[in-house]
Write a structure and sequence with these properties.
binds zinc ion; elongated; SH3 type barrels; mainly alpha; Rossmann fold; 532 residues; 3-stranded antiparallel β-sheet; 4 domains; 47% helix
């Protein structure tokens, strides 16, 4: 069992759940959203928050049911900007998102497995196992259509007065006296522009459709057309599933927001208790290159993040930040820093870097929670992201080649290394700042028209490289200054000249490191024109 003594926020939440909900054979942890568009990285924060708390409960020997609700019986209200076939999609507004076609196969018939909601659901469901998250998915359209909530709907209708009072406490315009806490999707045209005209006090509901003029009566026990409004639906499902823990975003946790009203409704209507909760904050995005927006609109999904961050580092970003702190996922140079932070936490975990006890406890727990599967038995080989970015540029994006060059490691390290290398190359090609990118010059290129001092410096550099058998970065860095002074030029002039020879630019990666990474053979070829 993992060490759970540390006071990580997920551990504190787990302890609170056990304290408030008592000793239970199993705890139900819930999360969910409406798949009305691409599931973005802000939505992912909720999912991973629940996953981390579920892990903390399991680390205490508790059984957990982690349910993820796809609220896919919601109305298609607007066509997101990043969707293909937007005009065709617009014809389906006001229908449940499960009867809207998959935008990528707009002509294909709508089925349970091929529709707008399902397309968004599948994208996330396919990615979550990569970050070690495997919840039990609940599909609300299927639940409603199977009349699973007939009793919950009837209960809400019976308690319409207390519900109306609770909701009116937070409304500037009160709900009318004839208001009923239910809505209907027309069984003829699928639209939600219907008016419920009568409820018989038991199971029968009558409605009229404003879109196609259809009028009929439905039996709640056999229809799938009736649905609770969100503010009643949520507490009904807390009670239905016995939810012990569910976090929510700022929008739901505001004063008079849906969490507030759901808390009151679950006890007034369903005789239940609200789950333990916390509020998680928004996620920003920083330093995006131009390429994401062309394929995904403005929406950054987990897929985009996993292109740049290996799964453990992705988990680390969230596990290492308190949920109520706003933070931005970086796609700029901070990517390197995030990888370095993760690597340091890994070294602390394995006792390879000394820190004080308090810090060690904290980092250890974050490291455990960052792992996709079990914590590795021995420290994985660490290849810094910065170094990989450089190697890959020298080797023109040959991920397999770079991995082979660095291999000789156990299979699990190799797996991580390959993923990290692929991320580094994606980062270089999609997001890295221009002055971080380079390509080595062709060794056949003519000599640069240098001043005498720079020429001498390049000749001395070449001679130095020729003598070097084992490379020592620190020693080489010192020697670069010695070479500059021997050639009678400022060290800045030497650096400029070297970068021009190597990459045809006046600036580049740290020179000593860079020279070592490029390697003796290539360096000699590039410096050949300065032989004499
Ligand atoms: Zn209709």
């Amino acid at each position: 069992m993992a060490d759970t003594s540390a006071s990580h926020w997920a551990d504190l939440a787990a302890e609170k759940i056990i304290r408030e909900k008592g000793d239970k054979p199993r705890y139900v942890c819930a999360s969910g959203i409406t798949p009305s568009g691409t599931v973005h990285i802000g939505n992912f924060r909720e999912i991973i928050s629940v996953d981390l708390v579920a892990r903390a409960l399991r680390d205490r020997g508790r059984a957990v049911r982690f349910i993820y609700s796809w609220d896919d019986y919601d109305v298609f209200r607007k066509v997101p900007e990043n969707m293909p076939n937007r005009e065709a999609l617009a014809k389906y507004l006001r229908q449940p998102i499960t009867t809207v076609p998959d935008p990528r196969t707009i002509e294909a018939p709508v089925t349970a497995d091929s529709n707008y909601a399902r397309a968004n659901e599948k994208e996330l469901e396919a990615l979550l196992p990569a970050v070690g998250i495997e919840p039990e998915y609940l599909y609300q359209a299927a639940r409603y259509c199977a009349s699973a909530y007939a009793e919950g709907i009837r209960r809400a209708l019976e308690k319409k007065e207390p519900i109306r009072e609770i909701l009116n406490d937070h409304r500037t315009e009160p709900l009318p006296a004839q208001w009923l806490p239910v809505s209907v999707f027309c069984t003829r045209c699928n639209h939600d522009e219907t008016t419920v005209t009568h409820w018989d006090g038991e199971w029968t509901l009558s409605y009229r459709c404003g879109n196609c003029e259809n009028s009929e009566s439905l039996d709640l026990r056999s229809t799938g057309a009736a649905k609770l409004p969100w503010r009643v639906d949520w507490p009904m499902r807390w009670s239905f599933e016995g939810v012990d823990f569910e976090p929510a975003g700022k929008d739901h946790h505001s004063e008079g927001g849906s969490f507030d009203t759901a808390k009151r409704i679950v006890s007034a209507v369903y005789g239940g208790e609200p789950p333990v909760t916390f509020q998680y904050d928004f996620i920003g995005v920083k330093g995006l290159g131009g390429k994401i927006s062309s394929s995904h609109g403005e929406v950054i999904s987990l897929r985009d993040v996993l292109e740049i961050y290996q799964p453990e580092v992705t988990r680390y970003l969230f596990a290492g930040t308190r949920p109520n702190a706003e933070f931005a996922i970086s796609f700029d140079l901070d990517v390197i820093k995030n990888y370095e932070d993760y690597d340091r936490t890994e070294r602390v975990y394995f006792g390879l870097e000394e820190v004080d006890e308090k810090r060690r406890e904290k980092e250890r727990r974050i490291y455990e929670l960052s792992q996709v599967r079990a914590v590795p038995e021995k420290p994985p080989k660490q290849v810094p992201f910065r170094h990989l970015s450089m190697l890959l540029q020298i080797q023109l994006g040959d991920v397999d080649g770079v991995v082979a060059q660095l291999s000789g490691e156990d299979a699990s390290s190799l797996d991580r290394l390959r993923t990290r290398a692929a991320c580094a190359w994606s980062w270089i090609t999609k997001h890295a700042p221009a002055d971080f990118r380079f390509s080595l010059r062709d060794p056949g290129a003519p000599a640069e028209p240098f001043e005498d001092g720079q020429k001498v410096a390049m000749r001395l550099l070449r001679a130095r490289v020729e003598r070097l058998e084992t490379f020592d970065e620190k020693a080489l860095a010192n020697e670069l200054y010695a070479i500059a002074s021997e050639a009678g030029i400022d060290s800045k002039e030497l650096f400029k000249a070297a970068y021009r020879v190597l990459i045809g630019a006046e600036r580049g990666p740290r020179l000593a490191t860079f020279l070592l990474t490029v390697g003796k053979e290539r360096l000699l070829a590039l410096l050949a024109p300065y032989l004499a």
